[in-house]
Amino acid sequence: MDNKTPNTSIECTVKQCEHHCGSEDYCALNQVRIATHEANPTVSQCVDCESFKVKAGCEGGKCV
């Protein structure tokens, strides 16, 4: 059972993230940092959640 408290202001579907709230698609953090890796971001693929931390057991592309 996941004991994280969902922050309903931050929706998230990245289940491989340490901060994801398990069965609820929310982040457990109070705030997140969103950044870009492009000089001129124009589409959503140009931005990243820099608060992402891979969940234990999800290294290498597969979660156990």
Strand content: 25-35%
Structural class: mainly beta
The largest sheet, given as strand count, sense and whether it forms a barrel, is: 3 strands, antiparallel
**Number of alpha- plus pi-helical segments:** 0
> What is the count of β-strands?
5
Mean pLDDT: 91
- If you compute it from the alpha carbons, what radius of gyration comes out, rounded to the nearest whole angstrom? 13 Å
How helical, in percent, are the residues? under 10%
Query: How would you write the strand order of the largest sheet?
Result: 1-3-2
Separation, N- and C-terminal Cα atoms: 15 Å
- Low-pLDDT stretches are none
Shape: globular
Strand/helix succession? EEEEE
Number of domains: 1
Description:
The protein is mainly β and about 60 residues long. The protein has one domain. Helices cover about 0% and strands about 25% of the residues. It contains no helices and five strands. It has strands at about 5-10, 20, 25, 35, 45-50. The protein has a three-stranded antiparallel sheet, with no helix packed on it. The chain has a two-stranded antiparallel sheet with strand order 4-5. A hairpin with a 2-residue loop joins strand 2 (about 20) and strand 3 (about 25). The radius of gyration is 13 Å and the shape is globular. It starts with 6 loop residues before the first strand and ends in a 15-residue tail after the last strand. The mean pLDDT is about 90.
List the helices and strands and how they pair.
Elements: E1 7-11, E2 20-21, E3 24-27, E4 34-36, E5 47-49
Antiparallel strand pairs: 1-3, 2-3, 4-5
